[in-house]
Structure formats: C-alpha cells, structure tokens
Design brief:
Distance between the termini: 34 Å
GO molecular function: nucleic acid binding
InterPro entries: RNaseH_sf (IPR036397)
Helix content: 10-25%
Strand content: 25-35%
Mean pLDDT: 82
Largest sheet: 4 strands, antiparallel
Protein name: Bgt-51803
Amino acid sequence: MKTRREWAEAHHHWTCEYWTSVLWTDKTWVEDGRYSREWVTRSTSQGYNADCVVEKSKRVGWMFCSCFAGLVNGPCFFWEKEWRSFFFII
C-alpha cells in the first residue's frame, strides 16, 4: 500500500474488538542533557575560525521500546549505549 489513505480505506471496516487485538509498538532514542544547536554564519571570503567551534562532549543515551494492545500495556525495554546491556519494566 502506497499511502496512508489506501491503508486506512483497507482497514476502515475493522471493529473496535479487532483493533484491540493489534499489537502497537514504538521506540525512541533519548539523550541526557540539554539539546541545543548553535549556528555560525560567515561570508565565503571569511575562513574557518576556531573561536566559533563548540566542543561536543560524549553524552549518555538510552533506547526505549514498548508496546500495547487494546487496554493492555506490554513491557518497556531500556537499552544503554551498549546494546548488550538492557533491562525491562513490566
């Protein structure tokens, strides 16, 4: 199916009871600290200026993944940057 509309039209006849049997999943990546972006503008005649560079530190991050079906929540999984280290919350 190429578009969301086609997908919706193909599934519009599903009952609420049937939709509750669908497992919905999602994941996101979260980093610790403040997210900001700084911009430096210069003309093409100006060269690189080291004073305009902000050092980037290595930040801690986590992957979060969970699911639900109907009114039932599935487990929540958390991964740190090392993929082999994870824990979950029921």
